[in-house]
Write a structure and sequence with these properties.
This protein has 5 helices and 2 strands, in the order αααββαα. By secondary structure, the protein is mainly alpha-helical. The chain has 2 domains: 34 residues; 47 residues, no CATH class.
Amino acid sequence: MSKAIANLTPFKAGEQRAVECGRKGGIASGASRRRTVFELLQAELDQEFCGGGLFSDERTGITKRAQMVRALVDKATQGDPRAFALILKLEEMAGASVTEA
């Protein structure tokens, strides 16, 4: 047996310190692997958009986020009041103002 292993002493049954160490280790392990829904959404929106239909592999060179904005603007220019209201709300949240009428 090596010196390092011989120096270790196991926790005694029911020892509170063992419970605390185990809990802390489990929490830290889970936190390092866990990703929030927001992080997953950000990662997905930053991926490149494949245009031309559901099963197309054609690369467009723009992100899914940019394609969603493009589609929202297209709907607003076609007269969709909900899309227009959403654009106004997003501009307001960003601190931008509508300068053109």
